[in-house]
Structures are given as C-alpha cells and as structure tokens.
Input
Amino acid sequence: MNRSLALVDEWFPGKAGWLQRLVSYLMVGGFAACVNLIVFGILENNVSIPVADVLHNLIAYVAAAEISILANFIPNDRITFSHLPGHSRSWWQRCLRFHMTAIGGTIVTYVVMVTLHYGAHLPYLVAEAIAIIIALAFNFTFHHVFTYRRLHTEPQVL
Output
C-alpha cells in the first residue's frame, strides 16, 4: 500500500493523502450504504404502518438515513478525516457538521430515488442503491470543504 501511495504521490504530487482518504471513505461508505439498505428494506417491506405508501416510504427512508449517517460518521471521523485540520473541533461540532453535509447528500439521494422509482418505475430498493452511488461525490467533496475544513482563526488585535 505504501508503495502504491508513493507512486501516486510521484505522479500526482500531494495527492496520496487524498487518495487514501477516498479509499477509506469508500470502504466506510460501502458499509454505511449496506446498513442503509438493510434498515430501509426491513422498514419498507416488513414494518406495517397504517399510512399512505408514499408516507410509509418517507418514514422508512428517514430512519434508514439517520442510522446510516451515524454508521458513516463514527468510523470516518476516527479514520478517514482524523488528520484534517477540522478534526480539532469538538466531537459534537464535527457530528453536527457531518450531519449537515450528510443531510444535503440525503436530500440528493431521496430526490434521485423518488425520480427513479416513480419516473423509471424501478423498485424502491434498486432506486435507493443507485441514488446512494450518485450522492457519493457530493458527500465526499462537502466533507472536505465544510465538515473538516481548517478552522478560521481571527487575527488578534493588540
């Protein structure tokens, strides 16, 4: 692995750390996506709620999203983004910022999922899986530019 990262750094100076974060993010995200799909599938197919189909889907979606956001945040915070400057913020601040970014990604995911389900007539689970993949670039980028960006320090006035 170190040899591969050294080659990446040789070909693309300064990008080895970014690539390492991307690979780690994809691995953690893959786990969180599986958590999301399992929770969504159980709630959508096995839990009966006496509401309209669209509302039942939304409830299952929101519950699966929150559980998967936490399954994504904890390992990404400890492993993937732990070396970035924004990691010096408190755990609660990082968790809140991660949630804000993830909610944006969740909205993107939901819009794509609903569009694929109702527009392309794909099953909910297939549409959700495709939507998660599409939102990946959004989330990774915004975690870099918002969640874990460097802290702004005010110049001290004497």
The CA atoms of residues 113 and 119 lie 10 Å apart. The chain is about 80% helix and 0% strand.
